[in-house]
């Protein structure tokens, strides 16, 4: 009986010690819904209005320069299970006014924050964070986010988005290795790589040229082709490869159509000159009438795009191995 009482006493002591452990006082949630997780990240957060915002201090490379404060509206954009006991939350921040309304333009990226949650029993606790790990996207929106397997043990965050500038639209890819409590850039210099491109609001003649057979030629008036915007439609598909349970290569396969053009001078043909002479004589004029004006146009060629870009994994990130995007950088 005495032994039983001692055992019960020890069990009670362990329960008391567990109740007094640091974890017992931590905020937690039993739900993995976005609002429940956001409440652990930003107590009092609401999906809209001033309660959605955060004031963030920015410091540049010059430590002596005054810091800047920005106001951002926060929204959960991805909840991704990492295991049965770990969860990742990605939160996007968009520039906003004092009322929580977005203040963005086509060149305004979203900031991304990452938060990790660990499960103990049926409770989820916040266990890590990496705030403002990148800025990406346009109009204050980050684009499409998801996770994918990086190798047999790790996952990566995939970010795909697009932007338009100077008559051209581009599609971009960025990758981050998901660490224990940090996001590690996987692409060269942490910068996105281009996945595709198309002409923004192409004219009727450009669309017609893109439908023509590769190798075809055609003429385009000066107002039908822009050397800056071009005339193209290129898409990319990518995939990751691993070897010996470790990351190996990132491959991007590009396909589509690109119209190249050169500006040429079009001399008036002889029939046109003869017709003008005859008209001048018929009106009682003297030979010869002024020749038709010299004009310029583009001589265009339809080209197939079928190429590959390969990156090789080394020292924790991917490095360019072969290939390049067939258009100048946007």
Please provide a written account of the structure.
The strands form 2 sheets. Strands 6, 7, 8, 9, 10, 11, 12, 13, 14 and 15 form a 10-stranded antiparallel β-sheet that branches. This protein has 2 domains: 27-58 and 67-141, no CATH class; 143-330, no CATH class. The protein starts with a helix and ends in an 8-residue tail after the last strand. The radius of gyration is 31 Å and the shape is elongated. It contains 4 helices and 15 strands. With 330 residues, the chain is mainly beta. Residues 1-25 form the signal peptide. This is Lipoprotein. Keywords: Signal.
Number of contiguous helices: 4
- Helix/strand/pairing class, anyone? mainly beta
The assembly state of the depicted protein chains is single chain
Low-confidence stretches: 1-23
Q: Work out the count of structural domains.
A: 2
How much of the sequence lies in strands comes to over 45%
SSE ordering? HHEEEEEEEEEEHEEEHEE
Q: Taking all residues together, what is the mean pLDDT?
A: 86
In short:
This protein is mostly beta strands and 330 residues long. Helices cover 14% and strands 47% of the residues. Keywords: Signal.
List strands and helices in order, with pairings.
Blueprint: H1 2-19, H2 34-41, E1 53-58, E2 68-81, E3 86-95, E4 110-120, E5 123-136, E6 144-149, E7 155-165, E8 168-178, E9 183-185, E10 193-199, H3 204-210, E11 217-220, E12 232-243, E13 246-266, H4 270-282, E14 295-314, E15 317-322
Antiparallel strand pairs: 1-2, 2-3, 3-4, 4-5, 6-7, 7-8, 8-9, 8-10, 10-12, 11-14, 12-13, 13-14, 14-15
